[in-house]
Amino acid sequence: MADKFDVIVIGAGPGGYVAAIRAAQMGLKTACVEKWVNKEGKTVHGGTCLNVGCIPSKALLETSHKFVEARDHYAEIGIEISDVSTNIAKMLEFKDQVIAKNVGGISALFKANGVTALEGTGKVVASKQVEVTGHDGEKATYDADNIVIAAGSVPVEIPPTPMTEGLIVDSSGALEFTEAPKRLGVIGAGVIGLELGSVWSRLGSEVTMLEAMDTFLPMVDTAIAKETQKLLKKQGLDIKLGARVTGSEVKGEEVVVKYSDANGEQEMTFDKLIVCVGRRPYTKGVIDEGVSVELDERGFIFVDDQCRTNVPGIYAIGDCVRGPMLAHKASEEGVMVADIIAGHKAEMNYDAIPSVIYTAPEVAWVGINEQEAKAAGIEIKTGSFPFAANGRALANNASDGMAKIIADAETDRILGMHIVGQHAGELIAQGVIAMEFGSSAEDLALTCYAHPTTAEAIHEAALAVDGHAIHMANRKKRK
Fold first, then answer.
1. 254-261 and 264-270 as β-strands: parallel, antiparallel, unpaired?
2. Is 193 annotated to bind ligand?
3. Fewer Cβ close by (within 10 Å): the C or N end of the chain?
4. Is 451 noted as a catalytic residue in this protein?
């Protein structure tokens, strides 16, 4: 007789492990299947995010940023250091230590909450059955009243640039360079490409980014995107827009990339090439053909607003369903699904999911941007405030960027918040909370902020929505 669980979760990434822990906390007998194996051959939890994505990339972003700060900017504030250098091997060692602490923490949480960790590859073979193929090839079948598919996503590969070990790599391979390549090419100037390009640019690479789209960061508010592009160009990132890669050729230890732009066919030679053109859902092989879970043509699993599939008792969350491919979105979906399985009413506000690009300065946003509002015919009013007029930002020697708030012209309700600046990823939480509570711009304007803080830029942006900013010349008169 097969082992029986109330819930089996397939995938222990930020969606799956959170769903499993929450389900166990709700008193449900829960198992979580994970196939990820680390360099030592040990099964580890955390998925892409903790092992080769969010966490390790932030470790390298932070260490490389500290290096540039010490080398180029400490003298500006009276800290003089000579001969600042990098030890990339040590940086990678630190990155690996951060990964180990995080994945080890999840395993400990599984034990503390009574989640059964199943090692191997999970596959839905019936509406209430999961088959697990162990690393040794042995198969075991488990019964479950409910199944949560949280299989995540993998990098998209494109025919013009097939992966070539050590030369043409995806985002995971870009975290393993043992030295900064002299000439680094990055295909794709999206979130992942900008972060990885920033890391290696800071560590000495000449970085050229080839972006097929004609618009830089089209999902970001135009004013914020324009400011971000200006700042990144100043840092040395060569971002070529409208550059569609058509082919590549490995010549010895170099990669020759061919692309077309407004000027015709072009060619560039790099020492390394990173392909960052997006991610696709990892659903192939996760669901047996005999199970009638519906998928679209791109491999995404169809779900409703509560992440139910068309098959009762089977749910899907995270990168393998619609919506932004973000770890925190997956986690919140995991909590929602676990609560629903436990018999509670739960839902998620998809209009208030923040996004962050961890460049320096950071870029963060939540809700709609100005161009989306105009396209939808929504009457809005906006308020912006530069960090150059913020006392704490000046004291931090980090005055680049701005904060912007978008509010409904009639109701004053906040519809979006957009920031480029130091710690934007932390500051954006104010916008998320404001939108969750249905706040108006006036609510933030009437809030007392601590001084001096960079958060005051949000306060001033809220005041600026009605022309009442204190520390900036106003175009509107007080009423």
1. antiparallel
2. yes
3. N
4. yes
* Residues forming CATH 3.50.50.60 domain(s) in the chain: 3-155+280-348, 168-277
Structure tokens at 429: 């939480």
Looking at 151-253, which runs of residues are DSSP E strands?
Answer: 153-155, 168-169, 183-187, 206-211, 238-241, 244-251
Q: Tell the CATH topology of 3-155+280-348.
A: FAD/NAD(P)-binding domain (3.50.50)
Please tell me whether 138 is known to bind a ligand. Answer: no
**Does the domain spanning 352-464 belong to CATH 3.40.190.10?**
no
Is 391 marked as a binding-site residue? no
CB 238 within 8 A of CB 207: yes
pLDDT tens digits along 226-251? 999 999 999 999 999 999 999 999 99
pLDDT digits (tens, 9 = 90+) for 410-448: 999 999 999 999 999 999 999 999 999 999 999 999 999
What is the CATH code for 168-277? 3.50.50.60
Is 192 annotated to bind a ligand? Reply is yes
DSSP conformation class of 77: G
Residue (of 61, 65, 393, 200) closest to 73 by Cα position: 65
Residue 333 labelled as part of a binding site? no
Residues of the chain with CATH 3.30.390.30: 352-464
303: tokens are 């779900």
Query: So what's the pLDDT on residue 34?
Result: 98
| Catalytic residue (choose from 73, 451, 468, 471) | 451
Contact 238, 209 (CB under 8 A): yes
Asked if residue 95 belongs to a known ligand binding site, the reply is no
Q: Is 402 within 8 Å of 471 (Cβ atoms)?
A: no
- For 414-417, the CB contacts below 8 A with 24+ separation are 414/367, 414/439, 414/440, 414/441, 414/444, 415/367, 415/368, 415/373, 415/378, 415/380, 416/221, 416/365, 416/366, 416/367, 416/368, 416/369, 416/370, 416/373, 417/365, 417/366, 417/367, 417/458
Name the one residue in this structure whose structure tokens are 């940023």.
65
Q: Which 3 state secondary structure label does DSSP give 37?
A: strand
Alpha-carbon span 232 to 15, nearest angstrom? 32
Averaged over 318-330, what is the pLDDT?
A: 98
* 105 vs 240: CA distance, rounded Å: 41
Contact 115, 20 (CB under 8 A): yes
In the DSSP assignment, the letter for residue 217 is S
Supply angle C-alpha 180, 182, 184, rounded to 5: 85
